[in-house]
Amino acid sequence: MGFRAKFAAMALLGLVALPLAFTTAPSKAADKKHKVFLSMSYVGNDWQAEAQNMVSAMAKYYGDEVDLKIQVAGPVAQRQIQQINAMVQAGAEAIIVYPISPTALNPAIKNACDKGVVVFAYDSYVTEPCAYNVVTDQAKLASTSAEWVAKAMNYKGNLIFVTGVAGTSVDTSRTEAAKAVFAKYPDIKIVAEPNGMWSQAVARKALTEVMSTRSWDDIAGVWGATACVQSWSMQLEAGRTKLIPCGTEGSNGMRVMMLPKGSIQGATEPYAPVGAPGISIESHTGAGAYALKLALKVLKGEKVDKKTIMPLDIVTPDNIKLCKDGSFAELKAGCNVFDPSLVASGWFSVIYNANAPEVGFQAALTGQPESQQ
């Protein structure tokens, strides 16, 4: 029997769709795609932009499975609640959320779960039991860095304590843990608490206001996110040669400044190696991307832990290592800072996750996944 005869016979038996069906029915690839939404809150810093890039890269890596939509609510809980409700109405199968509050979104999240939506919060956690959390251990991050700074201060002197976005679980956990450490040492005195909003520009303005009535000679240490690059830069501008110990941002600018002086040819201060004394630890920028990967597992019926802790990348002058090209293999080998010619100072270097080889340097920088080879 010829091909045409076989096709006609099969069509009569209902085994082959008629030609019209091929032009109107959705493809199998389209049927498999899960409708996933990314709900972002505060986005006024490099960390959030990088985290969004990594989520987008993960979605591209699994492009045959994911249809990703991104919405930004800003630092307003009610607006984020409205957006989550709208996502559910739009047919979301999974929602990846950076929550502005650990509790305010709970009713909206519970409503989503009740309708079969998989909800993952990243970096900043939520307390609704039905949600999954992919987070950094913020208390450990803060206490580890605070202990390092306290020791570098010889456990005495005036300290500037820079806070982040108020109301988020990240800022609350960090502030409580770090203050508990400094409180152990009665000779350390917190003399100012400027709010840096996790933004280099805001931190610079806040530190400038603090130092308008103080001298760096009277400060023995600085602690807080986005605190180090700006405080060290201000000290260099003031003509200081011995910089003050600082923790704990994970920006590339901070890590470059921690490198031995002269170790990167052509770099210009302040974005240059100056041998600054610091400890760099930061929330993992790939938490949202990994949350998306885990959400896909849940959608496929696989079991995933309700709480996933991201790896804590602790960088000090003892283990800082310059990356040459930023390949995933190089990151895996332990490099943790990039040449200033590759990325801006405020860009974050915390991108390696052994469990997410789909996203690396290019994902963080451009939103493109690693090669699928």
Amount of beta strand: 5-15%
Q: What is the chains' assembly state?
A: single chain
CATH class group of the largest domain = Alpha Beta
Question: Within the largest sheet, what's the order of strands?
Answer: 2-1-3-4-5-11
Q: Order of SSEs, N→C? A: HHHEHEHEHEEHEHEHEHEHEHEHH
CATH fold-level name of the largest domain: Rossmann fold
Low-confidence stretches: 1-30
Instruction: Give the radius of gyration.
Output: 24 Å
What share of the residues lie within helices?
A: 25-40%
Beta-strand segment tally: 11
Mean residue pLDDT: 91
Distance between the termini: 42 Å
How would you characterize the largest beta sheet? 6 strands, parallel
For the record, what is the CATH homologous superfamily label of the largest domain? Response regulator
Describe this structure in words.
The chain starts with a helix and ends in a 7-residue tail after the last helix. Helix 10 (228-237) links the parallel strand 8 and strand 9. The protein has 373 residues and is of the alpha/beta class. The protein has two domains: 34-135 and 284-311 and 359-366, Response regulator (Rossmann fold); 138-280, Rossmann fold (3-Layer(aba) Sandwich), CATH 3.40.50.2300. Helices cover 38% and strands 13% of the residues. The radius of gyration is 24 Å and the shape is globular. The longest helix is centred in the N-terminal third of the chain and has 16 residues, at 46-61.
